[in-house]
Amino acid sequence: MKTRSMSPIWLRGRRCIADMLADCRGIAATEFAVIVPIMLVLFFGVVEFSSGVAVDRKVTLIARALSDLTSQTPPPTVQSTSASILDNDLQNIFTASISIMYSYSPTPVKATLSEIYVDSNQKATIQWSKAAIIAPGATQATLTTSSHSPNDVVTPIVPSTLLVKQTYLIFSEVNYLYTPTIGYVMKTAVNLADKAYARPSQVVCVVYATPNPTQPAPDPLTGNPCPTP
What we know:
The chain is an alpha+beta fold. The protein has helices at 7-22, 27-71, 87-96; strands at 82-85, 109-118, 124-134, 142-144, 167-178, 190-198, 205-208. The chain is elongated and about 110 Å long.
């Protein structure tokens, strides 16, 4: 009785394996399935981080705009050493920055404007402070109570180069919670914040004048006296 040789079966098996390895059909789909997740992570990551950088730049622009506009408050006369600012003026200054955040997430921007006095001992204290909520798309900013109060000592947060004795600073702070539109890579919101300082450009100080009828009228030549603690 003859035994059937296994060589043809082995050859057929080897040929099938060779044919399978040589068959390139579907390789593009396989590569696509492997590469797509990586490409999506890179694409959405670039979109989310670049948007975050752009919004952070807007936050910086708002901080600078607020301090610059307040520091340019005009005096009542050329001889005046101080300028007065009212709630209406502050609201207009806060409102002017709404367009800076236009087209971005409707998350409200929280902003604060303060005036700081640096005394002869280089101690910095708050003279007045006002905050506002700036909602993108709104027609007007909403004034709110500031976290700073008059006579609060803020020397640690003022750069040493700005601690010039017996001078005033306009100090602005801006906070914005950046929430990624897609959230594919950045899963959580990021708080963006910035601050800016400016010196009154036309006067010695900017006095916050509350609309109080019992308050004494400012001197027609010098305006309100610059307060010192």
